[in-house]
Write a structure and sequence with these properties.
Strands 1-2-4-5-6-7-8-9 form an eight-stranded mixed beta barrel, surrounded by six helices. It is globular, with a radius of gyration of 20 Å. The chain is built from eleven helices and ten strands. Strand 5 (147-152), helix 6 and strand 6 (174-180) form a beta-alpha-beta unit. Helix 3 (87-109) packs parallel to helix 5. By secondary structure, the protein is of the alpha/beta class. 48% of the residues lie in helices and 20% in strands. The protein binds ligand C2E and magnesium ion (3 copies).
Amino acid sequence: QAKRDGGGSYRFFEPYMETESMQKLEMGNHLREAMLRGELEVYYQPQVDCTQGRIFGIEALLRWNHTKRGFISPAQFIPLAEELNLIVPIGEWVLREACQYTKKLQQEYGIPLQISVNLSVKQLMEKDIVDKVHAVLEETGLSPSDLELEITENMAMKDEQLETLGKLRELGIAISIDDFGTHYSSLSYLKRFPVTKIKLDQFFVRGIQTDERDRAMIRAIILMAKSFQLQMVAEGVETPEQAQFLNESGCELIQGFYFFKPMPADDVRRVLLESQADKIKRSQ
Ligand code: C2E
Ligand code: MG
Ligand code: MG
Ligand code: MG
């Protein structure tokens, strides 16, 4: 029996679970069951290259479709999954699923398409992570250069993890720094990381229309990315004004609701078809 809390919404946890750690334990169990019951689903958000007007890649974003609570945001369960090390099997599942699906799309449409997968530091800490990623590529037949692993800057990153990133790079896999600019270590990471791309955090994008300091910061980050010969994609772009400013400033790779929201796998097919038809129309 679910119980109403003060806010008037139903509580997920039973009242007997008084302590936070018990709640965590319970939610961890729910998450484990969710995996087995197939309640986890990979959504995909297209990334657009504005110079060519085409989708160059998609980012895999995990969703938990809970039987009672509906969709639960990864922001709510990824931190817990990391704490309980559940992120290791979950992340591996996402990786396999995403690579498999992308390979299928490449074959169906005969187009180049990159897949970006978020990788937790916990996964990077796994002794055999390089072998695991390699195995998934072999299994699915996806080319390593079509896979990008997104790493969020994290204090837990040690030399061993940087070494692991180097090995993944050697396989030909692309590495990007996620949420770039919002963590204290951003700049030093550029020096230490074998990265290929930075993802400008939506925090900066949000201020484009209102804050000259955000615009100045973005211009500076774009210059820096160029001088490091890094690709750069802006996240969280929601308005045409934001997209225009970024384009004019030299950041042509855009990800955000303005173009596409994260969507279920089947919708990606439709969107790819439409964008292809669009291009054919324009070239006629
Ligand atoms: P992220 O990797 O930085 O992903 C971008 C987040 O911004 C996503 O939230 C996406 O839905 C959202 N977003 C994209 N465009 C817009 C926009 O225009 N406006 C706004 N307001 N938001 C936008 P989401 O899907 O809730 O994921 C949150 C975070 O959870 C991700 O941030 C990522 O760090 C983590 N995550 C998601 N899937 C996985 C996964 O499979 N493994 C791991 N380790 N982490 C994951
Ligand atoms: Mg990401
Ligand atoms: Mg991000
Ligand atoms: Mg993030």
